[in-house]
Amino acid sequence: MMKEVWIRHIEETEGIRRPTQGGDRDAWEAAVFRHTAFGCPECIKRARTVRRNRSARMKHETLTGMGLTRVRGALGGTYYE
């Protein structure tokens, strides 16, 4: 999740504005703490997606760097040869 998207997510779910936009700093810090410490389900899902995409991208770059090409199998699977 990009930082701006994460900030917008906190603003929408908590119903507050960030301090740079005229919001209360203490309320903003409490909202950020709730999202990071207690694990907002939406934030956890987004972090998991980012982590999996990064892992798949690194795997693809590694295998193509070794000279392998990505191939779709007859049953829909993906493998490198």
How do the helices and strands line up, and which of them pair or pack?
Blueprint: H1 3-14, H2 25-37, H3 41-65, E1 70-72, E2 78-80
Antiparallel strand pairs: 1-2
Summarize the structure.
With 81 residues, this protein is mainly alpha-helical. It has 3 helices and 2 strands; from the N terminus they run αααββ.
List keywords for this structure.
81 residues; mainly alpha; elongated
Notes on the protein architecture:
With 81 residues, this protein is mainly alpha-helical. The protein has one domain (3-80). It has 3 helices and 2 strands, in the order αααββ. It has helices at residues 3-14, 25-37, 41-65; strands at 70-72, 78-80. It has a two-stranded antiparallel ribbon. The longest helix has 25 residues, at 41-65. The protein is elongated. It starts with a helix and ends with a strand.
Structural class: mainly alpha
The major sheet is characterized as: 2 strands, antiparallel
**Element-level helix/strand string:** HHHEE
End-to-end C-alpha gap: 32 Å
Helix proportion: 55-70%
Shape: elongated
Percent of residues in β-strands: 5-15%
Taking all Cα atoms into account, the compactness measure Rg is 20 Å
Number of DSSP helical runs: 3
Task: Identify the strand order in the major beta sheet.
Answer: 1-2
| Unreliable stretches covering 5 or more consecutive residues | none
Rounded average pLDDT: 88
